[in-house]
Amino acid sequence: MSTGHTELICPVFEDTWILRGEVGGRPLQLTLLRGSEGLLLLDTGCASDVEGLIVPAFEELKLSLSDLRWIVNTHCDVDHQGGNAGMKARAPSAILACGEADRETIVSPEAIMRRRYDAYREAHGIFYGEEARQWILKESGAEQPPDLTFAGGERLRLGEGRELEIVPLPGHSHGHLGVYDRANRALFAGDALHGSVYHGLDGSEALCPTYLYVPEYLRTADFVRELPLEIYVGCHWPVLRGRSAIVEFCDASRAFVVNAEGSILEALEAEPDGLTLRELCERCGPRLGNWPDAVHTELVFAFNGHMEDLQQRGLAEPVAGTSPVRYRSAQA
Ligand SMILES: [Zn+2]
Fold first, then answer.
1. Ligand 1 centroid to 203 CA: how many Å?
2. Which one, 90, 142, 272, 297, has least CB within 10 Å?
């Protein structure tokens, strides 16, 4: 059994490893947990990660795919569900599970395209170009309905002394899940929290936070902050060890949301005729991070969420009859 740190594998603690991949120039970390009665794989990466990362990592660790009992998707995204069909083909006895609220989005490439990546086309005129679209469809793999859905609160036993808890961590998606290893004070949290930015493999600021549902995301930041954790493992961020590093990450996640809202409200107050979602992203983006200019429109996920939240709270409103929708301050 190899437990050493290699290019593909990074041990977190006993019987727990990170499989280290890459997506769009950013790190992608899938977690593998072992008990005496089987293995759990958290997220399946993109479709090409089955043969490019997961299978080679199993070989390197001298683990058998037939011992894989659980495959859990933290949430609906190409880099977390894309290998589902490939992994079910490789490990047919494993049970593929996800959050109930993400099930319909996870089921197929067409579903995730329509419900997630192409969701802002009609109202806001924001959508991915054809090349990116084709890449997403290809890397989302073949249609693969999950076998089981979780609501949070379930316990999975991988063998004696290895009991894991499924915790709901909504905000980046409604059904986002984490795996909580209470005995080891560790949370495997997928993309539940984003801090202030996603970094690239070269350490540069690569992508803005991409939460979708503001109140849920803030509640998740508070929930994680209160858990008695010593280790926090996200899919695209360095592993955090120690309470203060974890609290700092939760606080940075919350602070970004607060800054984003302040920046949006300020921009709306300065424009009585209102602003489109694209204009808001382009105006506020440079004030929120140092990622490349082309990334500003990726704020659409978070900002659409902010606009829903601000309308709910009576602080902003759509201008009637505008297409793409213009928003204005409702405080004037
Ligand atoms: Zn991700």
1. 17
2. 272
